[in-house]
Amino acid sequence: LSFSSLQKCFLHLSSKMIDMEFSDIRPLIEFYHSKLSQVSLDFKRYLYNKINWKARIIGIRGERGVGKTTMLIQRIKEKYTNPDDTIYISLDHLWFKTHSLQELIGFLYNRGINEFYIDEVHKYEDWSRIIKNLYDQYANLRVIYTGSSMLELDNSIVDMSRRQTPYILKGMSFREFLEYDGIIDIPAYSLKDILSHHNTISLDIVPHMKVLREFDNYLHFGVYPFYKEAGDDFLAMLQNVVKLVVESDLPAVEKVSYPTIDKCKKLFMIIAENVPLQPNTERLASSMSTTRNTLLSLLYKLDEAEILNLLTTELKNYKRLVNPEKIYLGNTNLMYAFSPKINIGTMRETFFINQMSAVSSVQMPTKGDFLVDGDYLFEIGGDNKNFEQIADIPTSYLGIDGIETGYGNRIPLWMFGLLY
């Protein structure tokens, strides 16, 4: 054979090899394109425009079902005219049972793709070390990844803090729910704005909607964007989300045993049936046949997963586990999914701590219901609630349910849903 014939033969074989390799990743490409077809740019979560999308490594943590995947796909659709110039992958895809992330990124990077959108990193063993090594190996590599809210980046086996920009995506606020449902588009307000100008703000909003009706809808089903596709199956889907958090996400992050998972489910249901629980940790640990330290560890993990909300007298610190004074479910939707009986007072407090915790620190005070940012004291209740319990405290406020507008330091409860 002549040299030119050998060269043609080599090129032919090389193209076949490339075709074969691309055929190997066809399941991932098809999955990616399917996701692209399902996502709209009409509504974006509050975090979307706060992300520094220019960073080389971006980590987005958050509870299951709050829209992390949607946000990745939206970014691709907004940035790329040709979506095949990048790729979205989920590390819980079965493809990764027989292939590696390093293999995939090396193959695509050498063919011109340098930006990767990676979902569910907590499902991939040694993920932080691998991303760090890939970062060091490929000079122009960019990775945007999502993972469980339980991921502890500070405790990773490699130091990712100098390489990445981390973000946390919370469940939808009442403000976002109103926009997502096509009711009204309201800007987010700071806590100081609401405390100082709540009457003016509410008077701008109330004439354009039935605010109390929509607030009730939000309490029932408005925290998770998937309520639209779920319809009447929403509560069943939400129950399954919590099941997956405990049975799948927790073991992926903590490597816990099956008996511990079972105890975690039991603990969650005890709390769901007794919220707000004021726990005797020694007694509760004994009833679960475990130690106090193990119990506290489980409680704080469920808090990080955002299916519980622990109220402590100290600032919450996941490295120093103190006894919680009260335990709430993570949000009001979870109450409707798991609590056999809805207590309206607990519902109000659950809404307040859920929305406020997204933007401020919340502690258990010596007087009142909640201490916010170490300064503002709040009592939460119905229209007959007064300042008796927090009288003579200058920075004290009432969050009042069932009213559209307030006056003075009496603020409509729904307005604390405008914080983000």
Net shape:
globular
Question: Mind telling me the C-alpha Rg?
Answer: 24 Å
Tally of DSSP helical segments:
15
First-residue to last-residue Cα separation: 71 Å
User: How would you sum up the major sheet?
Assistant: 5 strands, parallel
- SSE-based structural type: alpha/beta
The unreliable regions are 6-20
What does this structure look like?
The chain is an alpha/beta fold and 420 residues long. Helix content is 43%, strand content 13%. It contains 15 helices and 12 strands. It has helices at 3-24, 26-38, 68-79, 101-109, 127-137, 174-180, 191-205, 211-221, 227-230, 234-254, 258-272, 281-287, 292-304, 332-338, 344-357; strands spanning 57-62, 87-90, 115-119, 142-148, 165-169, 308-311, 326-329, 362-363, 370-372, 376-381, 396-400, 410-412. The strands form 3 sheets. The chain has a 5-stranded parallel β-sheet. The protein has a 5-stranded mixed β-sheet with strand order 8-9-10-11-12, covered by helices on one side. It has a two-stranded antiparallel sheet with strand order 6-7. A hairpin with a 6-residue loop joins strand 8 and strand 9. The longest helix is centred in the N-terminal third of the chain and has 22 residues, at 3-24. Mean pLDDT is 92; it is low at 6-20.
